[in-house]
Each structure stands twice: as C-alpha cells, then as structure tokens.
Design brief:
The protein is an alpha/beta fold. The protein has helices at residues 47-50, 59-71, 83-95, 109-126, 146-151, 182-197, 223-234, 286-290, 311-326, 329-345, 370-382, 404-425; strands spanning 26-30, 33-36, 41-44, 100-106, 133-137, 167-170, 202-207, 210-211, 217-218, 237-241, 265-268, 280-285, 353-358, 363-367, 385-386, 388-390, 393-396. It has 2 domains: 17-54 and 327-425, Aspartate Aminotransferase, domain 1 (Alpha-Beta Complex), CATH 3.90.1150; 61-326, Type I PLP-dependent aspartate aminotransferase-like (Major domain) (Aspartate Aminotransferase, domain 2). The chain has 12 helices and 17 strands.
C-alpha cells in the first residue's frame, strides 16, 4: 500500500506536484522481486525503470562493483584511459555488426541521444556538407535533455524552446494494433520516403526499434531493413536508439537484430549495466569517427561528462555481458516473452482490452482508455505484480531471468485484475 511522506523534500521527476506524497516506497530488492516499506513483496514487472535486466542484487554484479571500487573508482577519460572502459568498448565492437567499432561512454540514455545528434550533425560538416535536418517518429522518445526533447512530438516531452536544427516528424499511419501488418510497413516506409525527399538533404533518421514511451508500438517486420535501404539511397545516417531495447530486452541482443541491419550510430543505456550504476554508450562506424580527425577546430568530439565511462560502471557492464552469456538471458527473454505474450493474448475478449502486443520481454496491454488502464494496473499491484501504466497502455517488462512460474504469476495477476475491472465497469 502507498506510504505517505508529507514532509519529504524529494522532488520526484515526471510526477505532478499534487502526487508527490503518498507514493510507494521501495526499500529492498532481490532477484525479480521488490519489497515496499509496508513489508509487501512484488514481482517486479517493470525491471525498476525498465533497466534491471539481470534482476536485483545479482552477486556477480555486486562483486564486480566492489572489486573495482577498491582498485580504481574512476579517472577522467579526457585525461587518461582505464582498463574497464577499454575492455567494454572492445567487447561492444565485438558484438555489434559491421563497422560499428567506435564507442563514447556516457551516463544516461538522454546523454547518449545528445551525443549521437551532435556527432551526426558534426560529421556532415567534417566532410564538407551542411546537413542538419533530422527525421524521426512523432511518438518516439529519445530522452529529456535539450536536444533529445527536440526529437519527440509526445505532448509531455515537447520542448517549449525553439529548435536549434530542423526536425521532421513521421506519424504511424495506423492504430498500434494494425501497425504490425505488411500494409502498414508499406505506408510507413512511404511516409519516411516523403520526409526524405521533401526538404533539404537529411543528416540523420533516428528511430527506436519499438516505440517504447509512445505506446509500446511494435513496428512491422522488415521495416528497419527497408528504412536502412531508404537511408542508403539518400545518403542519410541511420541512428537506432537501443536505450530501451538493447541488451536482450526484445529477445535479441539488440532490437535491430530482428531485421539484421547495421545502423551508422547506436545509442545504448539501461540494460548495459542492468541499472546497477549509471552508464550509456554511443557507438559509431569507423568512418564517422575518422571524420573527426579533420573537423574544423581539430579538437575531436566536443562533448563529454565528468563521470562518463565511469570505471565502476564499466566494470559492471563487462560483468553484465558475462552474466547474459552464462545465464542465456537473451534466449530466456525470447522464450518467456513468447509465453507471456501468448498468455496475455487470451485476455483480448475482455471488453476493456483493445490490443495485446510485444517483443521479447516487453509486452503491453492497450486498454480502452486511461481509466481502465489505471484500474487494471492498480489491481495487478494489489495482486503482487508491478506494471507501468501510461495513457491507457500497461507495459510489462520484467527482468530477463524471469522463470516460467513467474510468467504464469504475471498472467494470472493481470487476468484477475482485468476481470475485476471489467466487472466493476459493467
């Protein structure tokens, strides 16, 4: 139950002031479960902030952080390199396809977007072209820093200030339920084609493999393949935002792996360190990095942060890759995600459920509106499973070590909650 803290001085982000008090307070987490201040345990159906991919309290990750804390907490990468960062970037080059070899380490997904856009726009200047237009989804989400906010057309993330570069938004031409068809793919590619053909040459197209905050919309199979071809035709950089999807969430190591493409730039965060320590990465192709050898002021990438590529975070990320391989978490995400999706799709006859969709362990129930979504999410929490409700869509994204028994637990809790909500409505 909610635990009120009327004298709290904590200003919680993304939360109306009137709702600051009375929030649940999580005090402990182990494995795939969390405990609130009232002593109630919940199955964590949202992986913390969609980032605890290896679960909570994993001993190998705690040991990696502890060991690195004893040896070297951090040293500024503008001054010196260090082994954890060197090892991590080499390993990323090994698992990413093509010439995606060069990585800048940061702290958050928003910072990764900021860096990716700066790199993309500067790249064109480096090679003597003045391209600065970016094309992206209207309902995409790429972070909350200044440049990141320019990319989103979602009402709660839109910036009130003028854009420093042109941004063209593409809308999904159908409902999320119908967006997974071949016809929807044709229509979507046609819209990106129009955006690329109308206007000055575009510097970059930036998209998520799955529209996370924009309704957990699963894009049609083959869309990224055709978008890659379209970008190649127009000489435009393709930037894929893997902050949410990367590191196994969708049942593949990266979301773009479902279509087998190679982007020009990839942004990563969340699962890269399983949320244990803040970390993000931007990986670019070798030709993009090489262009900075001759950029106008010859200072390289003029972007970075004091704790970017933190040694402890990098050490944890290296161990995350070990844990993912040893525990076969990508494969488990695909298997349990399939079970979860199949089980929840049995709820579609419920009058409050408009659609059930998902990819790997990122599954969503779209309800007939915010009231139904809130009622089902609240009843699901009372049944011991935490989900995340936003604007009528309930997202379920548990840690990747989810067991078959826990998958069944989620399905049963949501089914009971949906039945209760429907009975109360009718």
């Amino acid at each position: 139950m909610p635990n009120s803290h009327p004298t709290s001085k904590l200003w919680r982000p993304w939360t109306p002031i009137a709702q600051q008090a009375g929030a649940m307070r999580i005090v402990e987490a182990q494995g795939n479960r969390v405990r609130d201040a009232e002593g109630n345990w919940y199955l964590d159906g949202i992986s913390g902030v969609l980032n605890a991919s290896c679960g909570h309290g994993h001993p190998a990750l705690i040991e990696a952080a502890t060991r690195q804390l004893r040896q070297l907490v951090h040293y500024d990468l503008m001054v010196s390199s260090h082994d954890p960062a060197e090892t991590l970037t080499a390993r990323l080059a090994g698992i990413l396809p093509g010439e995606l070899n060069e990585t800048c380490l940061l702290n958050s997904g928003s910072e990764a977007t900021e860096a990716a856009i700066r790199i993309a726009l500067q790249y064109w200047r480096n090679i003597g072209e003045n391209r600065n237009r970016v094309i992206t989804f209207e309902t995409g989400y790429h972070g909350s820093t200044f440049l990141a906010q320019q990319l989103s057309g979602l009402p709660f993330t839109m910036s009130e200030w003028d854009r420093p570069f042109p941004v063209d938004h593409v809308t999904v031409p159908t409902s999320p339920r119908d967006a997974r068809t071949e016809e929807a793919c044709d229509a979507l590619i046609a819209r990106f084609s129009d955006a690329l053909e109308n206007g000055t040459p575009a510097a970059a197209v930036m998209v998520e493999p799955l529209l996370g905050l924009g309704g957990c919309v699963v894009l049609p199979a083959g869309f990224l393949t055709r978008l890659r071809q379209l970008c190649d035709r127009h000489g435009t950089l393709l930037v894929i935002d893997e902050v949410l999807c990367g590191f196994g969430r969708t049942g593949r190591m990266f979301g773009f792996d479902h279509d087998g493409i190679t982007p020009d730039i990839v942004t990563m965060s969340k699962g890269i360190s399983s949320g244990y320590v803040p970390l993000a990465a931007v990986t670019v192709t070798t030709p993009i990095k090489d262009s900075f050898r001759r950029e106008p002021i010859a200072q390289g990438l003029r972007y970075g942060h004091t704790t970017g590529g933190h040694a402890v975070a990098s050490a944890v990320a290296n161990t995350v890759l070990d844990v993912m391989a040893e525990e076969k978490l990508v494969e488990n995400a695909a298997a349990q995600g399939g079970e979860l999706l199949a089980g929840l799709r049995k709820l579609e006859p419920n009058p409050l459920i408009a659609d059930v969709r998902g990819l790997g362990l990122m599954v969503a129930l779209e309800t007939d509106g915010p009231e139904s979504g809130e009622a089902i999410a609240t009843a699901t929490a009372q049944a011991g499973v935490l989900t995340r409700h936003e604007r009528g869509v309930i997202r379920i994204a548990p840690p990747l070590p989810l067991t078959s028994e826990q998958t069944t637990e989620i399905i049963e809790a949501v089914a009971t909650a949906a039945d209760l909500a429907a009975a109360a409505r009718h």
